Amino acid sequence: MNMILFLVTLGILGVAYLIVARQASKKVENREDYFLSGRGIGFTALTFTLLATQIGGGTVLGAAEEAFRRGWIVMLYPLGHALGLFALATGFGSRLNKLGLTTIAEIFEKIYSSKLLRQIASILSIVSLFLILVGMGIAAQKFLGALGFTRGYLFTGFWLVMTIYTVLGGLSAVVGTDVLQTLFFIIVTLVTFAFSSTSGMTSSVAPVVASASNVPWMMWLSGPLLFAFIEQDMGQRCFAAKSARTVSWSAAASGFVLLAFTTIPIYFGVLARSVGFVPREGSSVLLGIVSATTPTVVGTLFASALLMMIVSTADSLLCSISSNLAFDFPILQRGKSRFNVRASQLITLAVGMAAMGASYCFDNVVDVLMLSYELSISALFVPIFMGVLAPQKCTKAAAFGSIIFGVLAFACFKLWIPPMPKEILTLVISFVGFFLFKLLGRTVQTIETL
Q1: Given 51, 225, 253, 443, which residue has the most CB atoms within 10 angstroms?
Q2: Helix (H) or strand (E) holding 272
Q3: What is the DSSP string of 342-355?
Q4: pTM of this prediction?
């Protein structure tokens, strides 16, 4: 890899991001402008930013690594992400837009009339997203380490740039940089695939068969799909869209593009396995096979594009966590608009620095991350799903019931493995809790009127 070209590319992109953020900051007058872009994001920008939130370390680097071990069945993972986008496109996203919310957690106050549940949901969201953000930091460090940048200076610099442009312009800056990052990734990926296709190795691609019993296919498919309904970064974009129709069309378009472009890293993983490629210890299978099948310049640009997609996920998470803190906890709110903007910027800066520090302190947060990921889905999916699609059937008691039953099922299935997929069974139990507590609440009200 050409190190000078890599650093120059990162430098040019970093300066471009700061310019975009500076321009975005000029349009920020209040907290809603800062976190929701004045609710005016159009089709093109929304499509690119939805793509950027989903194309990251997991769907690109992680998928290629798994494809090297398991084969094409890894397509289930990006398929889960795409299905989440399609679910938003078929009506859920447009309903979110019409509710006029600021955070996903606000559903619990607006639909269920419970500030307590709103703050509980917000805390769960913040913890989950923060752990994912720390995971992005760790992934970026390992990625740079595999390229030979082991001292941490480059990671610190790139993380500071990401934090600064998010602090300056809020969601508008994130969306603007997402457009640049995603365009760069798409163009470079197509060029990389074209050069690799002429290398002579492509004829060696053969299917890699994995035993279904050893593949966590249900989690790959259902995890990203279900999380799309409850994650703040996706919800934030639905709230910020210009119209409900914009959400539907953008989510559908980004879902199809996501499927097309996440197929390419998986293809490279399968190719590496088929030709007997042996990656160096601690290195990336994807970067290794790309370097072996393309010119140095192309491989260097591809490495830059991969790092940019990690950044595109990280800035989205940073902005979403900050919006939860700013909107869901009244202690952080004041009357003056400019004060609220400054406070929001300070919150974003603090979260960004905390995530960078945590990424230096831990080597692996995957287990804790997955735990919080599953807990959030178990506790929050049913009340959020029902609150958006069937608000007339929602009561405070029903929300408490679904959360209690979901958390109990989550804990139980950590101790005992059921004979059917636990992800599905947990949601069934949470739905039972929702309707049971709704019925009990209605019964209590009837008795009290006698």
Answers
A1: 51
A2: helix 244-274
A3: HHHHHHHHHHHHHH
A4: 0.89
For 221, other C-beta atoms within 10 Å of its C-beta total 19
Can you tell me which residue has the tokens 């934090």? 163
Task: Compute CA distances 181 → 261, 283, 296, whole Å.
Answer: 14, 23, 21
Cα angle 58, 133, 83; round to 5: 45
User: Which has the closest alpha carbon to 287: 57, 62, 61, 72?
Assistant: 61
Burial annotation 95-123 (CB, 10 A radius, 16+ → b, else e): bbbebebbbbbbbbbebbebeebbbbbbe
Residue among 235, 295, 197 at smallest CA distance from 101: 235
Residue 241 phi, psi (nearest 5) = -70, 155
**CB-based contacts of 335, cutoff 8 Å, min separation 6:** none
CA distance 129 to 232: 8
What is the sign of the dihedral through the CA atoms of 278, 284, 289 and 294?
Answer: negative
What is the secondary structure of 151-192 as a DSSP string?
SSHHHHHHHHHHHHHHHHHHHHHHHHHHHHHHHHHHHHHHHH
What's the CA gap between 240 and 249, in Å, rounded? 14
Concatenate the DSSP letters of all residues of 355-395 into one string.
Answer: HHHHHHH-S--HHHHHHHHHHHHHHHHHHHHHHHH-GGG--
| Structural domains in the chain, sorted by start | 3-363 (1.20.1730.10), 367-450 (no CATH)
Supply the pLDDT for residue 364. Answer: 67
Q: Which two tokens stand for residue 83?
A: 């299905």
The token pair that represents 40 in the structure block: 């005016």
Residue appearing with tokens 């992400």: 81
Q: Tens of pLDDT along 178-193?
A: 999 999 999 999 999 9
Question: What are 38-72's pLDDT values in tens digits?
Answer: 899 999 999 999 999 888 777 787 888 888 888 88
